[in-house]
Amino acid sequence: MTETKTASRSTTPASSGLPVRRVFSTEGVHPYDEVTWQRRDVVQKNWRTGEVVFEQRGVEFPDFWSVNASTIVTNKYFRGALGTPAREDSLKTLIDRVVKTYVRAGQDNGYFASAKDAKVYSEELTWLLVHQYFSFNSPVWFNVGTTSPQQVSACFILSVDDSMESILNWYTEEGFIFKGGSGAGVNISRIRSSKELLSSGGTASGPVSFMRGADASAGTIKSGGATRRAAKMVVLDVDHPDIEEFVETKAREEDKIRALRDAGFDMEIGGRDMASVQYQNANNSVRVSDTFMTAVEKGTTFGLTSRVEPGKVIDEVDARQLFGKIAHAAWECADPGLQYDDTINAWHTDPNTGRINASNPCSEYMSLDNSSCNLASLNLLKFVGADEVFDVARFTRAVEIVITAMDISICFADFPTESIGQTTRDFRQLGIGYANLGALLMAMGLGYDSEGGRNLAAAITSLMTGVAYRRSAELAAVVGPYNGYAANAEPHQAVMRKHRDANNDVHPLHTNDTAVLTAARAEWDRVVELGAENGFRNAQASVLAPTGTIGFMMDCDTTGIEPDFSLVKFKKMVDGSSMQIVNQTVPRALTNLGYSTSDADQIVAWIAEHGSVIGAPHLDKAHYEVFDCAMGERAIAPMGHVRMMAAVQPFLSGAISKTVNLPESATVEDIADVYMQSWKLGLKAVAVYRDNCKVGQPLSVETTGDKAGDKKEPEPEVRIEYRPRRQRLPKSRLGRTTSFQVAGAGGYLTTGAYNDGRLGEIFLKLGKQGSTLAGAMDAFSIAISIGLQYGVPLESFVQKFANMKFEPAGMTDDSDIRIAQSIIDYIFRRLALDYLSFDERAELGIYTSAERAHYVETGSYLSEEDEAELIDSESLKETPADRVRVHEDGAAQPGLFDPTPAPEHVGGAHTSAELLEEQLGREVDAPLCMTCGTKMRPSGSCYVCEGCGSTSGCS
Questions:
Q1: Residue 264 is part of a domain; what is its CATH number?
Q2: Per the omega criterion (within 30 degrees of 0), is the bond before 336 cis?
Q3: Least C-beta-crowded within 10 Å: which of 396, 589, 662, 860?
Q4: In this structure, is residue 562 part of a structural domain?
Q5: Per-residue pLDDT tens for 404-451?
Q6: Domain TSCPD: where (predicted)?
Q7: For this structure, is 155 an active site residue?
Q8: Is 364 a catalytic residue?
Q9: Given 360, 488, 538, 583, the catalytic residue
């Protein structure tokens, strides 16, 4: 990493610094002294392996910080070697390290009117951090105030030209950014196509071929020890001659993954054979123009242009057919997304310097090539008071404090390359945003996909960006505008007027959004006025980032602009256990909707049991929409996500990190409609994900025509492929333990069952722990358990394994099974007796000793009473929960139940995602965390782990 510094502020200050007024902190009382602190032990395990992955004892946090928040901060952000005095062990140390660096830089660069103002600012900033009102992005916590380079940015945009030197430099710059834990995006459209000639006369390789090298580099750096995968974005303009190859690249690789998996290769995430698959380390996006989208609407042709001779059309394509291929590829594998070039550049404040060509990996930061952006996010729910009114004054003050700190950071920040450092210092792009919008709307009784919800979100976003730019203009009066402002003053001010005018399209529906919108309009009027007088300190001010790890740090229920993931979640306890809880915003919402305490309690109890509001007692169906979530029985419709993005986009400098999720049954046309409507509604970018799209593929493609010789767009025959779904066992399940001996060899059989009595897991304990036999039995148990949970009938296992013969074999101590051909033979006949009905066992020839004795006496395995009962009520098909027996001494003991919970390493939910899987009866399509083994959940266009805070992207 190249350490680059700014020597001084960009212009001579017009005043002597900002006065700072106190709003949050108390004069004469340090923010730390206003809260109660406690020491905690942080121990993290990979629950799948039992391995301790992190441990630090005696760390200090406020008593109101959750166990999850303190665990993630301790693991991710405390610096210093574990077990040494240099290791940080208190939130105070962490916050002081960052805040003191910011305040000192602010004083050195003339931001504050006096030392007293600097002290007040320090305490205000500290108070907001301690009370979880906002958080800086992760690189700030990683680096600021340490001996490491002071990198504060999470988002980078690179550039690459049509030369080998530039292409190799692209690889190098990306590598250093990945090494530092951040992500980068790049537009590769300047590279000449494979249809054009080199200066030597040979044929060019084309940009897609060079993507292979960059992809391999990212994969190597990831596997070389990074804590998360390398996050990268690759963009190609829709008029590039190689656009079809780019569009189909990842879909073809997904076909390869499936074929290799079916052939027995290890193609799971992190699998050893996965490295043979290309293009898996990047998000791909097509940069489309208004001209292309209009051609799609009209069904006309579109020209692909030369890179060597700009403007020269070297091929014509059917625009609608190309758009269909884009949608079809996204249907297959979620890539490519779309970026709307004309919309992006219409809101560009610095067009005289250069166009916006690309974005960061999560698509929220869009600016000049070779630039960076540091992020910070506000916790919206913190600004709703006990009266359930959004506090405009405190929110405004918080934005002022945060945006000031973000600008100060550019004064001391280091950057991975000199070109990135220079662009960032010249344009000072910032990315203030927020988290917990979904929880805020639910708490206030507003549906995420409702006019009321969208209007409040739009008003808050407008106020946030308006205050940020107003403060930017005030800073310009103190420390000067950004260096590139003079050349871009007119377009910058024009964009400010566009933001101001967009408020006219927001129509408040209730008291909260009326007050917020009124304040926002006043702020934008002030922005236009002050900007014309002072200019602006920052070219950009706001984005909506994923807020994965920092969302947990702030104890947010929801991340970024996302709705709530599900109504029921897991909460970590101080003793290391976890409990299932209904989101705390649900009771708050019910109160705001006018429900009595008694009715609300019954509704919450229903949700706790069913995971959904459907059918809840006393709940008006008109209020169901308030509790709609990203997943579950009432999942928000795809266009609900698009409409929310469209509501807030006019009030953001950048864009939004968000993926529009579609059900597995969605068609190619559904995805094409999302892409088309997103363009019409004014989004800057959109990404989609069809559930399980990386497994199910279209099975055939047919070409049709109206008559002979007519060529039509290939229409995929979308056929749903039904695959088994894993049904996990409930957290607390019915179980039993049977001791046994076969030919003197002893062991224990432990089983777990679903609530309806079906067998769901087995555990075999044989020999000493750690022995080869014990290990083999553990593996065998897991394989059988997973098979049962995926729906393989127990009788199928019994048919295969009963009567299998090998040593030890002989007499047993079980009166129902006197002789066994092997331990496996005994186990599966015992399982048949315990969990199969009489008819099912009879087909397999497996009976109890009592049934065999009755047959010898009467010629029938059942008594007349039993036969009559079987005919009338099929009582012998009762669930094992009704007839559980514990075989400790070899005798059947009806009525006894062993409540010992089954071991946790097979089945059972450990995160909200896994809990939702149990409720839905199908899997949530998300990866497992590489650190702690828990299932991650979506966060923007990335994934985040609830267990340890790891993310799959650049948040």
A1: 3.20.70.20
A2: yes
A3: 860
A4: no
A5: 999 999 999 999 999 999 999 999 999 999 999 999 999 999 999 999
A6: 742-834
A7: no
A8: yes
A9: 360
